[in-house]
Amino acid sequence: MGYPRKLTRRFRAFDNFAISFTIINIISGIFSSFGFGMNAGGPSILVFGWIGVSVMVLFVGASMGEIASAYPTSGALYFSAGKLAKRHRGAWSWYTGWLNFVGQVGGTAATNFAAATFIQAFISMQWPSYQATAQHTVAITAVILLIQALANTYTVQLVAVLNRISVWWLLVGMVIIVLTLVLIPTHHQPASFVTHFANNTGFTSGLYGGMLGLLVTSWTFTGFDGSFHMSEETVQATVNAPRGIMRAIAYSAIAGLILMLALIYAIRDYAHEASATAPPVQILIDALGAGTAKLLLLIVIGAMLFCGLANMTSNTRQIFAFSRDGAMPGSRWWHSVSPRTRTPVKAVWLAAACPLVLVIPGWWSHTAFTAIVSVNVVGLFLAYGVPIFLRLRLNDFQPGPWNLGRYGKLVAGVAVAWIVISNVLFMLPQASPITPASFNYAPIALAVVLLIATVWWFATARRRFQGPVSYGSPDEVAAMDLI
């Protein structure tokens, strides 16, 4: 790929799968967005929307996996965009890299903020006198980011071990939650309840409300590019990285559907629980009692913390690679590697500081925080879509060992179509009446990001950044290997 090797290959096939599986994180995703789905379509959209969107995301993952096999680098999306573009390679790479960076920063911020929110919910259940506040949420988020940065700083091996643990935490935790919801409650909804439709979005169109409900699954299925970003630290990355992407999506789809069904059939009072501050937590309390609900809430919190850790790891590698090509301010700092731990330590702390900056407005306004992190999913999926779109236009694409053969362009076409549709949905109003508190700020946040990237590009970047840098021929690069 034209780079001297700085990072050690300590990630096995399972470790590579684990990072994407952990970032997708069905427990974190479903518990964070289940309440929105109850009001935007209800059980019918939560279940059948989950199935449909999962299939579409598999198309995205398959096309990304084919590209990952051809270009297994930490730069991942922005690197492959620069290589696949016929013209203006620097610009394609620049915009893809910044969309990916902003999306990942927003993902780390949103996941850890959600974890802090659920931690406060647990504390409030345990000690009723405790008053949950926005200021406490921000402070807890800062502590979480600090701990995750220390874990990423110490060694790649520790992160790999934690990601292995996280897979079993998710799977065993899901089994415990599902079995508890199936066996303990004395009342379950009838089988036909899965077809129940609810539209409490405020919009009169049930079709529109149901389409918004598809966002629950889209919110959950983000971050599977983590396997791509860890390519330079994965053995046999041309095969194991795409397999990690596909397995993470497929296993998450199956396990998530089971968890979704368990929560839906455990619902007692739909209207009461749908209007609760944390609907899935209220479902657990109503169905199982406060004591059991608290124990299950610990599983949910643990899943969110693992998700935030994996998000930061993936973001760090993207920062490292983007800086290696001189595309970030202070690039010389961010792509340096610690000789002791063999990790990009400075990039780790940048990956911790940026989410904290996004979280700070939550000290005063939850709406302001939501406006900033809403670009997470839009930024990531646009970053996913650019190299897939460029691969679709390229007639002489040279695939790697893992490829889709003659179906590559068809799969890429479906993937691009779904990315366009889902991003349009994410930028539409999601509640009515539209007020400053309910307004969807994703388009504004995305426009600000693109405006800054564009001004920066035409001001200075286009003269110094021409896309991924080559340090020499394969033989010359091999002689530069630092390990």
From TrEMBL:
<feature type="transmembrane region" description="Helical">
    <location>
        <begin position="287"/>
        <end position="310"/>
    </location>
</feature>
<feature type="transmembrane region" description="Helical">
    <location>
        <begin position="12"/>
        <end position="36"/>
    </location>
</feature>
<feature type="transmembrane region" description="Helical">
    <location>
        <begin position="245"/>
        <end position="267"/>
    </location>
</feature>
<keyword id="KW-0812">Transmembrane</keyword>
<protein>
    <submittedName>
        <fullName>Amino acid permease</fullName>
    </submittedName>
</protein>
<feature type="transmembrane region" description="Helical">
    <location>
        <begin position="48"/>
        <end position="71"/>
    </location>
</feature>
<feature type="transmembrane region" description="Helical">
    <location>
        <begin position="441"/>
        <end position="459"/>
    </location>
</feature>
<feature type="transmembrane region" description="Helical">
    <location>
        <begin position="206"/>
        <end position="224"/>
    </location>
</feature>
<keyword id="KW-0472">Membrane</keyword>
<feature type="transmembrane region" description="Helical">
    <location>
        <begin position="347"/>
        <end position="364"/>
    </location>
</feature>
<keyword id="KW-0813">Transport</keyword>
<feature type="transmembrane region" description="Helical">
    <location>
        <begin position="370"/>
        <end position="390"/>
    </location>
</feature>
<feature type="transmembrane region" description="Helical">
    <location>
        <begin position="92"/>
        <end position="123"/>
    </location>
</feature>
<dbReference type="InterPro" id="IPR002293">
    <property type="entry name" value="AA/rel_permease1"/>
</dbReference>
<feature type="transmembrane region" description="Helical">
    <location>
        <begin position="410"/>
        <end position="429"/>
    </location>
</feature>
<dbReference type="Pfam" id="PF13520">
    <property type="entry name" value="AA_permease_2"/>
</dbReference>
<keyword id="KW-1133">Transmembrane helix</keyword>
<dbReference type="InterPro" id="IPR004840">
    <property type="entry name" value="Amino_acid_permease_CS"/>
</dbReference>
<feature type="transmembrane region" description="Helical">
    <location>
        <begin position="167"/>
        <end position="186"/>
    </location>
</feature>
<feature type="transmembrane region" description="Helical">
    <location>
        <begin position="135"/>
        <end position="155"/>
    </location>
</feature>
